[in-house]
Amino acid sequence: MLTIILNILLPPLAVYLNHGVGTTLLISIILTLIGWLPGVIHAFIVN
């Protein structure tokens, strides 16, 4: 439940909590900076 909320509100934080620091986190940060929705979609896919 917490992961779903974090996926929506703060996608990079949700990815960080599940995968740690790495390329997945970097991709999530870049997608979130491009636009909020791509970051959310990526967070739901990888989590």
UniProtKB/TrEMBL annotation:
<dbReference type="InterPro" id="IPR000612">
    <property type="entry name" value="PMP3"/>
</dbReference>
<keyword id="KW-0472">Membrane</keyword>
<dbReference type="Pfam" id="PF01679">
    <property type="entry name" value="Pmp3"/>
</dbReference>
<dbReference type="GO" id="GO:0016020">
    <property type="term" value="C:membrane"/>
</dbReference>
<comment type="similarity">
    <text>Belongs to the UPF0057 (PMP3) family.</text>
</comment>
<keyword id="KW-1133">Transmembrane helix</keyword>
<feature type="transmembrane region" description="Helical">
    <location>
        <begin position="20"/>
        <end position="46"/>
    </location>
</feature>
<protein>
    <submittedName>
        <fullName>YqaE/Pmp3 family membrane protein</fullName>
    </submittedName>
</protein>
<keyword id="KW-0812">Transmembrane</keyword>
